[in-house]
Design goal:
The complex is a heterodimer of chains A (469) and B (226). Chain A contains 9 helices and 12 strands. Chain A is α+β, with helices and mostly antiparallel strands and 469 residues long. Chain A folds into 3 domains: 6-163, PAS domain (Beta-Lactamase, 2-Layer Sandwich), CATH 3.30.450.20; 224-309, Helix Hairpins, CATH 1.10.287; 317-465, Histidine kinase-like ATPase, C-terminal domain (Heat Shock Protein 90, 2-Layer Sandwich). In chain A, the strands form 3 sheets. Chain A has a 5-stranded antiparallel beta sheet. Chain A has a 5-stranded mixed beta sheet with strand order 7-9-10-12-11, covered by helices on one side. In chain A, strands 6-8 form a two-stranded antiparallel ribbon. In chain A, β3 and β4 form a beta hairpin. Chain A is rod-shaped. Chain B has 226 residues and is of the alpha/beta class. Chain B folds into 2 domains: 2-117, Response regulator (Rossmann fold, 3-Layer(aba) Sandwich); 126-220, Arc Repressor Mutant, subunit A (Orthogonal Bundle), CATH 1.10.10.10. Helix content of chain B is 39%, strand content 22%. Chain B has 8 helices and 12 strands. Chain B has helices at residues 10-22, 33-42, 59-69, 84-92, 105-117, 152-162, 171-178, 188-201, and strands spanning 2-6, 26-30, 47-51, 75-79, 97-100, 126-129, 132-135, 140-143, 146-148, 169-170, 210-213, 217-220. Chain B has a 5-stranded parallel beta sheet with strand order 2-1-3-4-5, sandwiched between helices. In chain B, strands 6-7-8-9 form a 4-stranded antiparallel beta sheet, with helices on one face. In chain B, α2 runs parallel beside α3 and α6 (152-162) crosses α8 (188-201). Chain B starts with a strand and ends in a 6-residue tail after the last strand. The relative contact order of chain B is 0.10. The chains are: A alpha+beta (469), B alpha/beta (226). The interface between A and B is large, with 55 and 46 residues.
Chain lengths: 469, 226
C-alpha cells in the first residue's frame, strides 16, 4: 500500500478525525450517564429517608420506637425490594435494621455503623463482601423535643453498574467497527472519485508521438477533473500540431530542395557527357556537378536529421546481432583505412542481440569509423569494440589520431560544427555525420560519451539499452 | 518501346525525355495528373514513369486507377519524398520500382532498361569487355587469359560495372548496390576500391578499361572516354 497516495491520506485523515470525535462523544456520554444515574438513585433514597423522618420519627414521643420499626418494614418491604434501611439513635444503637433480602444478594448486618455525618444529608457507596455495591443515603434527624436519629436508606448500585458496563462494552466494540466501516466506505468513495484520474492517466500513457490524434476521455462533470482533461487535450493538440508542422516541413523541404537539385544534376550530367563541347567546358560542368552532389549530400543528411527529430516511425525496428554488424562494417571499411595505412581492429566476439533499426545503427558505426579514419594520421590505429555491460550494449570506437580540444568536445555533435581548419581538410565532409550519430542514438534511447586528448586520440562510446527479455 | 512520363516539373521532364530519346525510346511527357491518367488509359505503353506530387491527380491515385485496369505495365515511381511509409504504400499499390530525387540519369536509364526486360540487365554467365572476362557463376575474372585474384567487394564492384559496359555509374548507385544505404554519403570508399581494382585489372595492360567521369562516376569501357 502506498502511504503517500491521495486515497490513503484522505481516508486516514477522515477516519482518524471521526475516530477522535466519536471517542470524545462516547466518553462524555458515558461519564454523564453514570453521574445522572447515581444522582437519581441517591435522590430517591434520600426522599424515602425524609419520608421516614417526617412521617414516623416526628411522632416517636407519641408512638414509641417499636411502632416506627414495624411501620417502616411494613411500608417498604425491604426484604422483597432489595433495600437496606437502618435507623440508629445518636449513640449508634439500632432502632431498626431491615431484614436480609430474599435472594440474599447482601447481608444488612455486614454494613458497618458510621458515626453521623456533620452534614444533614450525605451518601456513600459501599462495596460488600458478597460482591454487590450499595449506595447508602444518610439523613440526620434533629428535632426539638425528640431524640436525634440517623436514617439510612440504601439500594443496590449493581443494575446501574451493569448497565454502564454494558454500554461501555458496546462503545468499545462499536467504535473501532464504525471507524473501519468509515474507512472502507471512504476508500470506496475516494476510489470512485479518482477513477477518472486513473482513466486519464492510462489514456495519456497510450498517447505517443505516433498517435497524437487521439484524445483523453473527458468526464463531463463540470469539476476540476473535466478542466484537467480538457487542458491536457489542448496540450496534446498543440503537440500534435507541432509534430504535424515539423513533418510537413520535412516533406515540403524534401520536394522543394530535391526538385531543383534533380534539374541541376541532370543538366550538368548531360553537359559533362556532351562530346560536342570543348573539354574545358565539360571539365567546369564536372566541377559544378561535384558541388551539386555535395549539396545534395548535405540536403539528404539534413532531411535524415529532420526525420529523426520528427520521431520517424519505427517500421524498420528489428532484433539483430550487434557484434556481427560491427564485424561486417569494420570489414567493409577496412580498405578505406588501409588506404591511409591505418589499422582497424574489431573486438566483437559473442553475439549480442539488440533491438533497433539495423540500417540506422550501422550508419552510426560507419560514421564513427569514417570520422576516426578522417582524423587519424597515417599509420594510426583504430579499435572498434562491441560488448555487453549490465543491461547495455556498448559500441566503442577508439583512435590514436589528432584528438579534439576540450572546449570543442561539447559541440562536436552540433550541426555543421567544425573544430578548426585542419578538420575541414576532409573536403567531402558535410559536418553532419556526428549530428546524425547523435540523433540516431537518441531515437534508440542510447547515450553517447566522448573522451579525447589532443594529440593522443579520441574515444566514442555508444551505450544502447538491451531488450528486456 | 513507348514510355509515358508523368512529371509536373517541366525541366525535370525535359532532361528525362532528352536522355531517353537519345537512347532511342519513344517518350510522351504530360505535366498534369488528370491528363496523365487519361493518356495512360488511352494508349498502350511499355513503361510508365510516374511522379508522385502532381497537380489534378496524385501519382498514387493514378497508380491505383491504373492497376485496376492494367496490372501488367511496369511502373517506375519518381519522388522527392523518401518516407518509408510512402514507399511501402506505393509498392503495395503495384509500383515496380522507386527512385528518389535527385537521381543520376544513368541510374534512371538502368532501371528503365531493367524493368523493360523484366529481370537483370545481363543474364549470361560470362561477361566480356574487350579482353576482360567475368564468369558470374564461378566468380572468376581473367584478363588476356590471365587469372586475376579479387576480394569479394572488388569483384562485386567490377561485376556491377560490367552489367552495362560503357554506361557511367554514379558513386551513389555503386554504394547502394555494392554496399548498402548505411554508407550513403561515404562516396570516397568507392574511389578507394576503384583504385585497388585498377591496380589489379588495368595497371599491367596498355588498354585501360576502368574510366573516371568527372562529377558523375565510373564506367567500364573498352573505348577511352575523352
Amino acid at each position: 500500500m502506498n502511504f503517500r497516495s491521495i486515497s490513503f491520506r484522505l481516508v486516514a485523515w477522515h477516519a482518524g478525525l471521526l475516530a477522535v470525535i466519536f471517542l470524545v462523544l462516547c466518553a462524555l456520554l458515558y461519564i454523564d450517564l453514570r453521574r445522572f444515574l447515581e444522582n437519581d438513585l441517591r435522590e430517591s433514597q434520600l426522599r424515602r429517608a425524609r419520608q421516614i423522618a417526617n412521617t414516623l420519627l416526628v411522632h416517636v414521643p407519641q408512638t414509641g420506637e417499636a411502632y416506627v420499626a414495624r411501620q417502616t418494614a411494613d411500608w417498604y418491604d425491604p426484604d422483597i425490594n432489595d433495600r437496606f434501611i437502618r435507623i440508629t439513635r445518636a449513640d449508634g444503637t439500632l432502632v431498626y435494621l431491615s431484614a436480609a433480602p430474599k435472594d440474599g444478594c447482601f447481608e444488612p448486618a455486614e454494613v458497618p455503623i458510621f458515626p453521623p455525618s456533620p452534614k444533614l444529608e450525605s451518601a456513600r457507596v459501599l462495596k460488600l463482601s458478597g460482591g454487590s455495591t450499595l449506595l447508602i443515603a444518610a439523613l440526620n434527624f434533629k428535632s426539638s423535643g425528640n431524640p436525634d436519629y440517623q436514617v439510612e436508606f440504601g439500594a443496590l448500585l449493581d443494575p446501574v453498574e451493569s448497565m454502564l458496563n454494558h454500554l461501555f462494552l458496546q462503545l468499545t466494540l462499536g467504535l473501532p467497527l464504525a471507524v473501519v466501516i468509515i474507512a472502507i466506505g471512504g476508500h470506496l468513495l475516494v476510489r470512485r472519485a479518482l477513477t477518472p484520474v486513473e482513466q486519464i492517466t492510462r489514456a495519456a500513457e497510450r498517447i505517443t508521438q505516433h498517435n497524437l490524434s487521439e484524445r483523453l476521455p473527458v468526464a463531463a462533470t463540470g469539476d476540476e477533473l473535466e478542466r484537467l482533461s480538457v487542458s491536457f487535450n489542448r496540450m496534446i493538440a498543440r503537440l500534435d500540431e507541432a509534430f504535424q508542422n515539423s513533418k510537413r516541413f520535412v516533406a515540403d523541404a524534401s520536394h522543394e530542395l530535391r526538385t531543383p537539385l534533380t534539374i541541376l544534376r541532370g543538366e550538368l550530367e548531360s553537359l559533362t557527357d556532351d562530346k560536342r563541347l570543348a573539354p574545358e567546358v565539360r571539365e567546369r560542368a564536372g566541377s559544378l556537378l561535384e558541388e551539386v552532389l555535395h549539396l545534395g549530400k548535405i540536403v539528404e543528411q539534413l532531411l535524415t536529421l529532420s526525420h529523426l527529430d520528427a520521431g520517424e516511425s519505427q517500421t524498420e525496428w528489428s532484433r539483430f546481432d550487434l557484434s556481427e554488424l560491427a564485424r561486417t562494417t569494420a570489414d567493409q571499411m577496412s580498405l578505406l583505412a588501409e588506404d591511409k595505412k591505418i589499422s582497424i581492429t574489431c573486438d566483437a566476439g559473442a553475439p549480442l542481440a539488440v533491438e533497433g533499426d539495423r540500417v540506422r545503427l550501422k550508419q552510426v558505426v560507419v560514421n564513427l569509423l569514417d570520422n576516426a579514419i578522417k582524423y587519424t594520421p597515417s599509420r594510426g590505429a583504430i579499435r572498434l569494440r562491441v560488448h555487453g555491460v549490465n543491461g547495455h550494449a556498448m559500441i566503442e570506437v577508439e583512435d590514436n589520431g589528432i584528438g579534439i580540444p576540450p572546449d570543442a568536445v561539447p559541440h562536436i555533435f552540433d550541426r555543421f560544427y567544425r573544430v578548426d581548419q585542419t578538420r575541414t581538410a576532409a573536403s567531402d565532409s558535410t559536418g553532419l555525420g556526428l549530428s546524425i550519430v547523435k540523433s540516431i542514438c537518441t531515437a534508440h534511447g542510447a547515450e553517447v560519451e566522448t573522451q579525447s586528448v589532443v594529440g593522443k586520440g579520441s574515444r566514442f562510446c555508444i551505450k544502447i539499452p538491451l531488450p528486456k527479455n | 518501346m513507348r514510355i509515358l512520363l508523368v512529371e509536373d516539373e517541366k525541366k525535370v521532364a525535359d532532361i528525362i525525355v532528352r536522355g531517353l530519346k537519345a537512347e532511342r525510346f519513344a517518350v510522351d511527357a504530360v505535366h498534369d495528373g488528370r491528363e496523365g491518367w487519361e493518356t495512360a488509359n488511352a494508349y498502350n505503353y511499355d513503361l510508365i514513369i510516374l511522379d508522385l506530387m502532381l497537380p489534378g491527380l496524385s501519382g498514387t491515385q493514378i497508380l491505383e486507377n491504373l492497376r485496376r485496369k492494367n496490372p501488367l505495365v511496369p511502373v517506375l515511381i519518381l519522388t522527392a519524398r523518401d518516407g518509408m511509409t510512402d514507399k511501402i504504400k506505393n509498392f503495395e499499390l503495384g509500383a515496380d520500382d522507386y527512385l528518389t530525387k535527385p537521381f543520376a540519369f544513368a541510374e534512371l536509364l538502368l532501371r528503365v532498361k531493367a524493368l523493360l526486360r523484366r529481370g537483370p540487365v545481363n543474364r549470361s554467365s560470362v561477361v566480356r569487355v574487350a579482353d576482360l572476362e567475368i564468369d558470374r557463376l564461378s566468380q572468376q575474372v581473367r584478363r588476356a587469359g590471365k587469372k586475376i585474384e579479387l576480394t569479394a567487394k572488388e569483384y562485386a564492384l567490377l561485376e556491377y560495372l560490367a552489367t552495362n559496359p560503357g554506361r557511367v555509374f554514379s558513386r551513389t548507385m555503386i554504394i547502394e548496390h555494392v554496399w548498402d544505404q548505411s554508407f550513403e554519403g561515404l562516396t570516397n570508399i568507392v574511389d578507394v576500391y576503384v583504385r585497388h581494382l585498377r591496380e589489379k585489372v588495368d595497371d599491367a595492360f596498355p588498354v585501360k578499361l576502368l574510366h573516371t567521369v568527372r562529377g558523375v562516376g565510373y564506367s567500364l569501357n573498352h573505348e577511352a572516354q575523352a
